[in-house]
């Protein structure tokens, strides 16, 4: 175990007073003989921006999918907003999901729907949250204005550029005003300028709504700008944890491999 | 001798492997069908999406079914005519064409055309949604994607196929009557009167019932292949392709069972 991990884990376990939003404990997940998660542990605090970095195929996406109930872990505890989602029934899970926004790697906008319909879609199952709001248009407009795309409401996803799609997907992720936003490779496949814009939007959204964010990425620049704390996922475990500066300064070759220019 | 023995062994292993794969596929498909029935009766019901899918399946396949039906009617009559003339039985033409189209040719041809159009469409659409994580996004937003995407599509195919078969049958009979009108001076009125006199409930009811099953099989296989697509764009193509092959094969199995059961009830 690296020095950095030893140091940071001790501060987490010592117990900060901040409320815990996500807690993953001893998470195991295999696909046949391929052990992807091998006892992964992680804690995300309220209002925190936590970046999880790992190589391609290291299990970052599997971890985030376990976190939102899209995959079941082989064993371990997945606690989100105080509830263990592994033992939760489908109805409660759907209810909990209204407090979680998810930005997918490829945006995952519904091809057959307009931008407005894409944003209205998450609301159809959570009407109870919007009592008194008959018209969804103001909410859609507000979400789109947050990402600077109010004019695209009636466009189809195919008419948008890659960066615009990502911004619309971000608007869809925040439409229910979630307490937690999960970002799966938010800047992958984007040019540096657009990636910078997306990072800026992520920060402004967190500032505006006070959300907690878990960001999965292998983009070091993204991690440097947005992270308050980082977890390095290596060989299925949380190999190292710390701030960006702490990890960059580490001497462990496995940690250094992430930050080599 | 040795290479032949090895070849024989390899062939046997291959056969066993393929047979095992086949039964696993049938098991998975059956589980998918059971899941459909469970989800179809549980609220909330996605009526709006069901109507949209009915429009997509019905309206967009109508022209293709009508064109195919018309050509089948023409060809069947043109090819049968010389033989019936030879036996002095040309006046039986409307009876023969009517019964064969309504009982068998109409439903089977329409179902095969629709399996190419609908099953591959469902396979490609759902496969593409799976690969681009749209199905995951739906699930994360609290919507049951199986109910929203699969149940509505299977129901739409099941409800629309009998209507398409009826349209296809009528157009095929019109094509046939056109040949009789031009070659045999048989009026349209006389032709259709003869056809409807020849048809009984024993012809219409089983054909309509089996059309529902054809629609169900087409919807089920298309959605099954699309929903379970492997990752990657190649998976989408494979899903669309295998959906058509599987649907076409199952249509003949269902047709055989339908004819067998009809025979018991109506003594065809």
UniProtKB/TrEMBL annotation, chain A:
<dbReference type="GO" id="GO:0005524">
    <property type="term" value="F:ATP binding"/>
</dbReference>
<protein>
    <submittedName>
        <fullName>ATP-binding cassette domain-containing protein</fullName>
    </submittedName>
</protein>
<feature type="domain" description="ABC transporter">
    <location>
        <begin position="22"/>
        <end position="260"/>
    </location>
</feature>
<dbReference type="InterPro" id="IPR027417">
    <property type="entry name" value="P-loop_NTPase"/>
</dbReference>
<keyword id="KW-0067">ATP-binding</keyword>
<keyword id="KW-0813">Transport</keyword>
<dbReference type="InterPro" id="IPR017871">
    <property type="entry name" value="ABC_transporter-like_CS"/>
</dbReference>
<dbReference type="InterPro" id="IPR003439">
    <property type="entry name" value="ABC_transporter-like_ATP-bd"/>
</dbReference>
<dbReference type="Pfam" id="PF00005">
    <property type="entry name" value="ABC_tran"/>
</dbReference>
<keyword id="KW-0547">Nucleotide-binding</keyword>
<dbReference type="InterPro" id="IPR003593">
    <property type="entry name" value="AAA+_ATPase"/>
</dbReference>
């Amino acid at each position: 175990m690296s020095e950095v991990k030893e140091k940071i884990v001790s501060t987490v376990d010592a117990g900060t007073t901040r409320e815990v939003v996500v807690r993953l404990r001893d998470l195991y997940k295999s696909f046949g003989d391929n052990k992807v998660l091998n006892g992964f542990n992680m804690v995300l605090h309220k209002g925190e921006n936590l970046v999880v970095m790992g190589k391609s195929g290291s299990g970052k996406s599997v971890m985030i999918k376990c976190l939102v109930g899209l995959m079941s872990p082989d064993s371990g505890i997945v606690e989100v907003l105080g509830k263990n989602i592994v033992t939760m029934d489908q109805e409660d899970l759907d209810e909990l999901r209204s407090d979680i926004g998810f930005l997918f790697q490829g945006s995952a906008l519904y091809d057959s729907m307009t931008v407005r319909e894409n944003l209205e879609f998450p609301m159809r199952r959570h009407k109870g949250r919007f009592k008194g709001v008959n018209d969804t248009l103001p909410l859609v407009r507000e979400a789109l204005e947050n990402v600077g795309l109010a004019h695209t409401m009636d466009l189809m996803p195919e008419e948008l550029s890659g960066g615009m799609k990502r911004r619309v997907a971000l608007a869809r992720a925040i439409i229910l005003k979630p307490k937690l936003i999960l970002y799966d490779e938010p800047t992958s496949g984007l040019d540096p300028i657009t990636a910078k814009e997306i990072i800026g939007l992520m920060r402004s959204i967190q500032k505006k709504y006070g959300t907690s964010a878990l960001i999965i990425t292998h983009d070091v620049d993204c991690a440097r700008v947005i992270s308050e704390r980082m977890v390095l996922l290596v060989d299925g475990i949380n190999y190292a944890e710390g701030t960006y500066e702490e990890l960059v300064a580490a001497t462990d070759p496995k940690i250094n491999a992430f930050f080599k220019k | 001798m040795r290479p032949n023995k090895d070849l024989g062994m390899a062939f046997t292993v291959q056969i066993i492997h393929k047979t095992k794969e086949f039964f696993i596929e049938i098991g998975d498909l059956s589980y998918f069908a059971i899941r459909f029935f469970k989800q179809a009766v549980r609220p909330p019901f996605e009526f709006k999406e069901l109507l949209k899918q009915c429009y997509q399946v019905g309206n967009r396949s109508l022209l293709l079914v009508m064109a195919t039906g018309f050509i089948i009617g023409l060809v069947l009559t043109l090819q049968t005519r010389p033989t019936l003339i030879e036996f002095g039985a040309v006046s039986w033409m409307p009876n023969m064409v009517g019964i064969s189209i309504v009982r068998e040719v109409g439903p089977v041809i329409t179902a095969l055309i629709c399996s190419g159009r609908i099953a591959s469409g469902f396979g490609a659409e759902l496969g593409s949604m799976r690969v681009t994580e749209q199905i995951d996004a739906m699930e994360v937003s609290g919507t049951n994607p199986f109910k929203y995407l699969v149940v509505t599509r299977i129901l739409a195919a099941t409800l629309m196929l009998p209507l398409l078969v009826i349209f296809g049958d009528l157009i095929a009979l019109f094509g046939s009557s056109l040949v009789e009108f031009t070659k045999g001076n048989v009026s349209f009125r006389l032709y259709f009167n003869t056809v409807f006199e020849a048809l009984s409930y024993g012809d219409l009811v089983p054909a309509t019932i089996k059309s529902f099953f054809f629609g169900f099989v087409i919807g089920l296989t298309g959605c099954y292949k699309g929903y379970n697509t492997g990752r990657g764009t190649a998976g989408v193509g494979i899903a669309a392709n295998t959906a058509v092959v599987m649907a076409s094969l199952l249509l003949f199995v269902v047709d055989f069972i339908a004819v067998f059961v009809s025979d018991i009830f109506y003594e065809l």
